[in-house]
Amino acid sequence: MLNRVRSAVAHLVSSGGAPPPRPKSPDLPNAPSPQTAAPPEAPRSPPATAGSGSAAPAKTVEARASFSRPTFLQLSPGGLRRAVDHAGRAVQSPPDTGRRLPWSTGYAEVINAGKSRHNEDQACCEVVYVEGRRSVSGAPREPSQGQGLCFYYWGLFDGHAGGGAAEMAARLLHRHIREQLKDLVEILQDPSPPPLCLPSTPGAPGSSDSSHLVGPQSCWSSQKEVTHESLVVGAIENAFQFMDEQMARERRGHQVEGGCCALVVVYLLGKVYVANAGDSRAIIVRNGEIIPMSREFTPETERQRLQLLGFLKPELLGGEFTHLEFPRRIQPKELGQRMLYRDQNMTGWAYKKIELEDLRFPLVCGEGKKARVMATIGVTRGLGDHNLKVCSSTLPIKPFLSCFPEVRVYDLTQYEHCPDDVLVLGTDGLWDVTSDCEVAATVDRVLSAYEPNDPSRYKALAQALVLGARGTPRDRGWRLPNNKLGSGDDISVFVIPLGGPGSYS
Amino acid sequence: MLNRVRSAVAHLVSSGGAPPPRPKSPDLPNAPSPQTAAPPEAPRSPPATAGSGSAAPAKTVEARASFSRPTFLQLSPGGLRRAVDHAGRAVQSPPDTGRRLPWSTGYAEVINAGKSRHNEDQACCEVVYVEGRRSVSGAPREPSQGQGLCFYYWGLFDGHAGGGAAEMAARLLHRHIREQLKDLVEILQDPSPPPLCLPSTPGAPGSSDSSHLVGPQSCWSSQKEVTHESLVVGAIENAFQFMDEQMARERRGHQVEGGCCALVVVYLLGKVYVANAGDSRAIIVRNGEIIPMSREFTPETERQRLQLLGFLKPELLGGEFTHLEFPRRIQPKELGQRMLYRDQNMTGWAYKKIELEDLRFPLVCGEGKKARVMATIGVTRGLGDHNLKVCSSTLPIKPFLSCFPEVRVYDLTQYEHCPDDVLVLGTDGLWDVTSDCEVAATVDRVLSAYEPNDPSRYKALAQALVLGARGTPRDRGWRLPNNKLGSGDDISVFVIPLGGPGSYS
């Protein structure tokens, strides 16, 4: 993300300040050491275990964190050089000679125009097999039962202040999701409502009998109904948290620099789950209609959450910041005058008399792409950032950032999709210069130029979207056809066909 | 509101627990003592100062708090007896002989079927004149300048655990709004953007010159643009807070019992502001289309806000509650098993091992109309409730309740309204048994039976809505035509015509 972290005021320190890591559960996937990273390979078909989303021709941790590109790009050493050339900004897509991505997904990316040394976006596309950890009845599962689950997975990770967090998330987040789903394998395939309570020990008698679970109710007249869908949402939410905790634990050993936005799609049992933490965006274009599948989390959209936290926990402001918002910085000479402000409970503005502590820097300031938390970071959800501190201070910013995504669910079975219906995921490099409507117009223009059954049309569409956001070099910059500036940021796009040649039913 | 506060588990104590009252500003309106309350009268036309929204033929504070009905009903002693008769439940509306409510607004109400002794709903409809406190330039205003502002005001207040808070809010909230608007009289009438900073003392030189306000910006490239509209929103938000603080200060002297939901409408300078704190509801029905103008604030809709507060401030839970949500009460014998739960960051559900502190009562429990905070209250925003405690405990509930409304704005000038376009306000007694669509159908049915220029049609519509929600006595209860139970709650409805005979342009 371009300028998401103000390099002038932010710095990374390796010392503490973040909460102590909690003990690692033995069930959590390990971060593979660089030496054991899977070699580049095409995505596997089910049933297969999760492969690595991002591996690279690299021999050291640092090199891997800096240079890796998604394995499905199958970049040769020469291709990698072209991919990281800020001057040429060649658009990268998986080769036609390789195996296609699941569902004939289209993908394209381009590096930034020089704002950071490396492309800090990362991507992952996988088919993941989930083997149940144990049966609901408590009996150990027979491997031959074959009752596992498969999910399709796409992830975009937009890094900032270093590429380490994005690289790690691309490599591991889907494994955390798999881990969270392991307990649900039988439950999700059972049409009856999920049991509210499970036995602690496998083999405990009567544990699959839900009748005993409905005990005498002291306060509820009935128990709450919990859907299968909400279990998947909960699994994805917790997977984000476990991923973030793993980054906190391993930040020293594995050079997990910076943080990243995460936008992932999980397709499971007929439903598409879109989970977003950050300022990437997903939309469905269906029969020309735009269906937003995410919203952005920025200092502006999360102002009230941030202010409330600063109000309830003033120690997090370190005496350096005020939780109040002002429309501009207050000058010391204005002390005693009355200035417009917004408190955490307000959406409107009112005047207040300026007091001494109002001269502190506001927790949230600026507008649009320039909005910042603690004058430092322009995105309020994501993974990592455990070492991020306010400039010239030991004040940690992480307490204000949330690793939890918002998850939206789209039922693929409720509508008969045609080959032109797609789910488009893009990092902010795309959306900063392209509106939803412009994307929909490009979808229509590009797809209509290809036969409906031509699987390469989605890759062409992804490339067209990336090219359209990058522009062409002209007048000392990258410019769009309307002569406005193109995006100088890293740009990454997935185009997922919802009714295309993919066979997902 | 029916059963909003569980009388079995809640009680009111007069001792402290709430935050200490802050000193009263000399600018705040005083609560008139009962002796000085204005006599019943029809709403005044502008220019006029705010009249009392709710006064009554009562001689003591207690009687006033218990029996008062809106002055615009002009109830005779006999009428008042009929209005409070739980058996007959006669629908009340302003008499045809009186002066009409502004804009020919329709109003109707009915008392509950016996759930509480008195009708705990209150209503207010006023035209309020706002005289500027001082000019922006700092010069004292000449009374002859006549540059004041007028706003139209409608308010519904649904009390619980006593009628005192609703009665006080009906009498005073519009005065707090007027007070907040006093500083804005000149600013709102000046088409240029509001000044970000005002002088502290009237007459300070150069204070109306906005050019000096744009000082050197250390961090913002430009100042934030603040609209006139957002100033009105901020004024309404702060008026709710001041009203709540006044209730806290005067709760002992004035018998401000319980609390109330507040739904108010302010029409000012071409825009309709709908502010809601609680579970009343406002919708616009425009050319048959439904435009929601509020949302309800309940333990379910505000679950994550409540849980976050309990998580960040565990002392507010007093060791009696857990901030985690469970789908049903956990039995002690289930310790060690794994139960579905939701944390404050989650919208989905996941399993967790039950530990000792999970056996505490959940902060939020139940579903629908039975959802409760701390097993006590079913609404999470409103005014009052400063004395509300958890049963058999000194634990205050007020810290979890917010007095801040959500304000939605509707620009009346953006659409040419016809006489059938209305804004409908109702307490939950209406909405518990009537859907938005049913209300829209009643709007169509009733209004089409009257001439478009007949001002009595809006009163007839309000009566039809109240009757339709109350039903008729049959089979040992109040029943709707479909034989379902009607609402046994207090029901109050305003119908505000948006393009009717009212002359508000």
Automatic annotation (TrEMBL), chains A, B:
Residues 1-63 are annotated as: Disordered. GO terms for molecular function: [pyruvate dehydrogenase (acetyl-transferring)]-phosphatase activity. Residues 47-58 have a biased composition (Low complexity). Coiled coil: none annotated. Signal peptide: none annotated. Residues 104-498 form the PPM-type phosphatase domain. It holds the Pfam family PP2C. One of its GO terms (cellular component) is mitochondrion. PANTHER family: PROTEIN PHOSPHATASE 1J, PROTEIN PHOSPHATASE 2C. This is Protein phosphatase 1J isoform X1. It comes from Mustela putorius furo (European domestic ferret).
